[in-house]
Amino acid sequence: MCPMQRGPILQVRRQARDVAGQRIKVSDLMQANYVYRLTEPAGFNFRAGFEPEVTPQGMLELGVFGGKYMTDCTDEFPDEWFAHAKLCSERHDPALNCFGVNASKPLAYWRERGWIHEDDPRGWFQWYCRYFMGRRAADDERQIKRWRAMRRHLAQLQKHCSAGDLSCRPKQRQALLHWAYDTRF
Predict the structure, then answer these.
(1) Distance between alpha carbon 136 and the CA centroid of its chain, in Å?
(2) Within-domain flag for 128
């Protein structure tokens, strides 16, 4: 179960470095020879109204996507993101998730609905990781709208769960964590 401690999840924001113009070349199992540029310092200059509560590093440390997400593309992101990440390269393991439940749909489900952009074939979290690192892209507004749409689930937790009861609606809590919302309240 997720620790209740709500430490400095956004600590990376204070450690931003100047990377404007840095080129990132990606070659992993899902993307070959994709190149993007970082135009903002990591963790800064987010669009107005986009205020994720958990950094990508914090999400990986708390446990998301059954530990299977991003196991083949760690070279693209800072080493510190993976130092304490809960990962499993062999299979999706819901026990590694913060709330110990499966709250994921298969990638095929997301593809069928047209929610995957070609620049980010792994979906929203990959987009968020790259956005957090400083990439800005044509798909930003759509992805931010999708993030905002998840807020309705926060209202349901607040209405139906007692403060501090992390066993209340664990699947919904895990799903919200997948979208960088911290529901450990």
Answers:
(1) 16
(2) yes
